[in-house]
Amino acid sequence: MRTGPGGVIEVTSRHKALLCAKAAYEKKAEEIRVLRVSALTGLADYFVICSADSRRQVQAVADAIDKLLAQAGCSPQNVEGLEQANWILMDYNDLIVHIFRKETREFYGLDQLWGDAPRLRTSSGQLQRLSPVPARRPARRPRP
């Protein structure tokens, strides 16, 4: 969380990536990976990669991510693959989300391609407690 101009709370790239993982988890996506790719590419700070069993589930995961990030005040710059739903790519500028059907994920091997990226560890408990807008920390009292 950052406080931007005018005291508006800005959601960090990391928080957005974790929100995507939460939405994917809630829609029963599998093999959810949150990768910090900022040191490897200028494309984004984080990639979120996950798999689903069917085209319908791929679309449901994308919809859940879109809704949760919208609650956090974020909208994608671009979304590709919604119609075919074999691989949906959601571009949030500092975050790129890849939602695959299992066979498609295996074919393209994105996990191996970005295997050098540090992976954020997530637990179901951590994801369940996550809210769209991070709690604001109380301001420190000035010392006399």
Specify the structural class. alpha+beta
- H/E series, N to C? EEHEEHEEEHHH
End-to-end CA span: 28 Å
What is the residue-mean pLDDT, rounded to a whole number? Answer: 86
From the alpha-carbon coordinates, what is the Rg to the nearest angstrom?
16 Å
Strand line-up in the sheet with most strands: 3-4-7-6-5
Mind summarizing the main beta sheet?
Answer: 5 strands, mixed
Helix content: 25-40%
* pLDDT < 50 runs, ≥5 residues: 1-8
Report the principal-axis shape: globular
Helical stretch count? 5
What fraction of the residues are assigned to beta strands by DSSP?
Answer: 15-25%
Quick summary:
The chain has 5 helices and 7 strands. The chain is α+β, with helices and mostly antiparallel strands and 144 residues long. Strand 6 and strand 7 form a beta hairpin.
Structural notes for this entry:
It contains five helices and seven strands, in the order ββαββαβββααα. The chain has 144 residues and is of the alpha+beta class. It has a five-stranded mixed sheet with strand order 3-4-7-6-5. The N terminus is likely disordered.
